[in-house]
Amino acid sequence: MDILEQVARELELGEDENVVEAVQRAIAQGAAAKEILDNGLIKGMNTIGEKFKNHEVFLPEVLLAARAMHAAMELLKPLLIRDGIPSKGKIVLGTVQGDLHDIGKNLVGILLKGAGFEVIDLGHDVAPEQFVETAKKEGASIIGMSALLTTTMPSMKKVVELLKKENLQGKIKTIIGGAPASQAYAEEIGADAYGYDGSSAVECVERLTTRGSFEKPL
Ligand code: B1M
What we know:
Radius of gyration: 18 Å
CATH class of the largest domain: Alpha Beta
Distance between the termini: 34 Å
Number of helices: 9
Strand content: 5-15%
CATH topology of the largest domain: Rossmann fold
Shape: globular
CATH superfamily of the largest domain: Cobalamin-binding domain
CATH architecture of the largest domain: 3-Layer(aba) Sandwich
Number of domains: 2
Largest sheet: 5 strands, parallel
Bound molecules: CO-5-methoxybenzimidazolylcobamide
C-alpha cells in the first residue's frame, strides 16, 4: 500500500494519532501537501461518506474521521499557506445557517490564505445577516459560503437577496461551494461564482477580485 493510500485508510479508521503519524510519514517521504490532502485525506473522507450513505458505517465513525481530518489539517496548514504574501483582498467565509460541516470550508480558507487573501472565517451555522454585516464592517469585497446539506442551501440565496436589498450586489460579490451546490444553483440564486473545490474557489476569487465577474463557469 503506498503512503497516500495509508493516509486514506487511517482516516477511514478515524484514530487521529495514526492519521497524523501517516501524514508525517508522507511528508517525510516527500509527498506534496496538496497531494496528501487530495489523494489521502479527502479520498479517505469520501470513502467514509459513501459508507455512511450505504449504512455501512454510522455517525460516530464519521465524527471520528472528521476529528482526525481536523488534526491532520493542522499539520498541513503551514505547508499549504505560503508566508509573507501581501493581501490581495478580504473575504468573509463561513458555513451557512443550520449547517455544521466545516471541513471543506476550512480547507477553502487555508487555500485562500495561501493564495494571499485575508480571510475572516465566521465558522459554521452563520446567519445571512452575519455574513452581510461582517462584510460591510470589515470592508470585504467577497462573501464565501459553504453548504453541505440540501436543506441549508437556501440560506445562500438569503445572503444574495440581503445584498440586493441593501444595494450591495456587485460591490460585495458572492461565491458558493459545497457538495450540493453547483454552477446552475449559483446562477439560479444570483451568486457571482461557484467553486467546485478548494483550487477552483481560489481561481474564482482571483477572477472576481481582478475582473469583477466570470467569463466562464469553473
Ligand atoms: Co454529514 N452529511 N451530516 N456530517 N457528512 C454529508 C454532507 C452527506 C452527503 C452524507 C451522506 O449522506 N452521504 C449528508 C448530506 C445529504 C444531503 O443533504 N444531500 C450528510 C448528513 C445527512 C448529515 C446529518 C444530517 C446526519 C444526521 O445527523 N443524521 C448531520 C447534519 C448536521 C448539520 O450540519 N446540521 C451531519 C453531520 C456530520 C458530522 C458532524 C458528523 C460531520 C461534519 C464534521 C465537520 O465538518 N466538522 C459530517 C461529515 C464529515 C460528512 C461527510 C462524510 C464528509 C464531509 C466532508 O467534510 N468532506 C459528508 C459526505 C461526503 O461529502 N462525502 C456528509 C470533505 C471535504 C473536504 O469536502 O466539504 O465537500 P467538502 O468540501 C469540498 C468542496 O465541496 C468544496 O471544496 C472542498 C474541498 O474540495 N467546497 C467549497 C466546500 N465549501 C466550499 C466553499 C466554496 C468553494 C468550494 O466557496 C466559498
